[in-house]
Amino acid sequence: MLEAIRRWRDAGEAVARITVLVAKGSTPREAGAYMLLTQREQVGTIGGGRLEWDCMADARALLTNGDDHLERHIPLGPAINQCCGGAVTVSIERIRNLDDIESQAWKERETLPQLILFGAGHVGRALAKSLALLPLRLVWVDARQDEFGPVPPTVEAQVTSDWESTLNAAPAGSGVLVLTQSHTLDALITGAALARNDLRYVGMIGSRTKRKRFESAFRAIDIPQQQIDKLVCPIGDFGVRDKRPEMIAAFVTAEIAARLLEV
Q: Distance (Å, rounded) from C-alpha 5 to C-alpha 13?
């Protein structure tokens, strides 16, 4: 969203915001959900389907006719060919100051959970693309600059071997995902993450054999067993044995969504 806001501001685009003010009963999105759009693009969603389609048409008409604001109460029933059964009140407004919207988007981003992805190999690159779609702050760390390839615009790439500083700076409740090119480095990062005892998710790529060997090493440095038990390894273990990076990334992304982002 931030990238689109900057692009629209630089281009002098007319922008509207659609916001769900009230959501009663079964609805596609909750009160407070919003989207932004111009005559040609949109970011965000109020839930899709006919509800969103009609609201987008109203918003683009508003941008064309020069109006500033309108409000609609919409039952989600036969009249719009939806069967949710609830009802929403939606605000549609022309945005006069994109700086305020950008500031709001930054504040919303700061409230998102943080996930640190250590490793920019084949699986790391696939994961960065997949995880960038989730509502989280993704920090991607590797000392090998050439390994990153294209970095998704919402991802913070850190080219550094000082993984300790990045890990120590992570807020409580963050997630850590470890898949470096070195088993020794995997062990160091994972052990330090488990020792923190305040992270919501700690995952490490590897087999069950690798996990057993690492568990012994963690116990040897006095990491409590209850902390070791929190380690997720193998990651993305949904019983599918396809080891292509894109497939691993899909399952791990689902795992992160369930374990780190679940409200």
A: 10
Mean per-residue pLDDT over the chain, rounded: 94
Neighbours of 181 (CB within 10 A): 14
* Amino acid letter, residue 167: L
Entry pTM: 0.85
DSSP for 92-105, written as a single string: EEEES-HHHHHHHH
What tokens does 152 get? 């998704």
Q: What's CA 107's distance to the chain center, in Å? A: 15
Helices (H) and strands (E) in the chain, counts: 9, 10
Helical spans, DSSP H, in the chain: 2-11, 49-65, 98-110, 122-131, 163-169, 183-196, 208-220, 225-228, 245-259
In what order do the strands lie in the sheet containing 34-37? 42-44, 34-37, 15-24, 87-95, 69-75
Task: Give the chain's domains with CATH numbers.
Answer: 2-108 (no CATH), 112-259 (3.40.50.720)
How far is it, in rounded angstroms, from Cα 134 to Cα 253?
A: 8
Confidence of residue 2 (pLDDT cuts 50, 70, 90): confident
Residue 89's Cβ-count burial label (10 Å; 0-12, 13-18, 19+) is middle
Q: Distance (Å, rounded) from C-alpha 88 to C-alpha 17?
A: 16
CA dihedral (166, 223, 174, 149) in degrees, to 10, reads 50
